[in-house]
Amino acid sequence: MAGNGIKTSQEIVKATNVTFQKGHVSREKRGRLMGQKAFRGCTVWLTGLSGAGKTTIGFALEEYLVAKGIPAYVLDGDNVRQGLNRNLGFSEEDREENIRRISEVSRLFADGGTVCITAFISPFSRDRKKARKVHQDNGLPFYEVFVDTPLAVCESRDVKGLYAKARAGKIKGFTGIDQKYDLPERPDITVDGANMTISECVQNIVVLLQEEGILPENVGDCVKELFVPDGEVASYEEEASQLPSLRLSTLDLQWVQVLAEGWATPVSGFMREKEYLQCLHFGCLFEGNPARQQVSGSIINQSIPLVLPVSTEDKERLESTGTSSITLEYRGNPVAILRDPEFYPHRKEERCSRQFGTANKGHPYVQMVFDSGDWLVGGRLEVLRPIKWGDGLDEYRLTPNQLRKRFGDMGADAVFAFQLRNPVHNGHALLMQDTKRRLLERGYRKPVLLLHPLGGWTKSDDVPLNIRMKQHQAVLDEKVLDPESTVVAIFPSPMMYAGPTEVQWHARCRMATGANCYIVGRDPAGMAHPDTKEDLYDATHGRKVLTMAPGLSQLEIVPFRVAAYNTATNSMDFYDPKHKDNFLFISGTKMRALARNGENPPDGFMAPKAWNILRDYYQELAKSALLDDSPQTAPHIQQQV
User: What is the pTM of this model?
Assistant: First the structure.
């Protein structure tokens, strides 16, 4: 009964002789059919005054979840009143019926496995309680989100001009003016619609859904760094000095940096055997939360193993101590602490065959795998300090969080990433320029390019990192790429030359920076076969694999368009087979020969300043006949001042 003693519309039942019919598809099965390992159906009920920001937050949350591969749908108050509820007005009784209908509709959406987001004023607490009960009675999660925006702020916004009309008496029964709004007594979460950004509101709701087990950990828009808290470094260093230690190679240290900075989020350290097997055999990690004793259902793309090899001698020495923690050190300096270590066999031939498609030791990374320890050790990583290499390039080594901040400061509304391990010529630039143009045509206002050369170990005949960085800067100096909308940074991962398997890793890491587009080139992460000298991997497979790879669906893949030198225009241009006689293909071998001989390529092939840097490098290389197979830099660990 309502307060006036009259039955409300929600309590009147006119349908009789009806029986509920139970379907044959369980929620768990429905979740699996929707590509998820867990059922995620729920309702996120946004409530607040008109103008509080409910609709804006709701659509932003929907967009965010869908971009992460989570089915979501918004039921908006104005939209629903144009269809399902167009026969309802704004009397107290009609408002009650409005919410009753939406309660039932949102329940159906949630039962179908969708995260249903409702954006309704829903001013009466009794109606919101009934909406919650409808879900609870059907075993469905319901989360009330109070968008707490003061009336004065809502009035100042007044996008629809409704407050002005209500103040003038042209609209009667307007919530907040002459109709009460019952403040939520115990909302599941409150977001400050006046002082928080839309992104912050969305992330607060996402965190709530993660804590409730609706969303997996990797859906959150945060990067999981593995550094110890700043204020506790000294105590960790003291502990590290007392623990048994394991020496790292330069390659190992590069992988520590990758993990520490959060490029592999949510991976928390070197892989244990379970993670290693998932990676090796499925190319994915299956995230679960042991605290809830259930699998949260997230598939995390992880195509390459993140492992730490150890020798039999080191394994036996460390195991004999019975320690649960190991200090990882580099050149006598403690770098990190590895917690709860787990040792397991390093089956090298099997690993190489699966990761690289070959166990041929003529492949340089394969050779390094075979030269490494016969065991792998996994465990949680706690890194003491940021890793610095002292090569004059540390300013370019921006972490994912630092890049996110940089993009935010630039006002970027789209980020497109281009990875390369080679110098930039005008064909590359053409593709990047074309991608920016297309994003602008789609309505983005400030697309930003992340020019992201790989900065870890590379094979001896690749151009060294310091030369590549000088060359990239020259491309910007000559305005071939727009310096105002380009960020040049170093990606710290070693290069493995694992083709389509590795390119998934490259793309997945750029997602940590907030990038939403990834440009993939011809034969990414490829190399020549050690024996036949033909392409080890099909040159088109990297692009094709990225468009199908699990866990990467939210990243838009921009395929590489073939560019060549157009002799009719004296510039790099997209290849047109109708005018094939106009096009000249300048191979890497040809480019290196020109540089070594001190010759110049055709005008328009590469920015002159950038070419001079490359030419000088190859001429010096030819003079010294030096091919240095050691890592490119002599790193050191940042020390406390």
Answer: 0.78
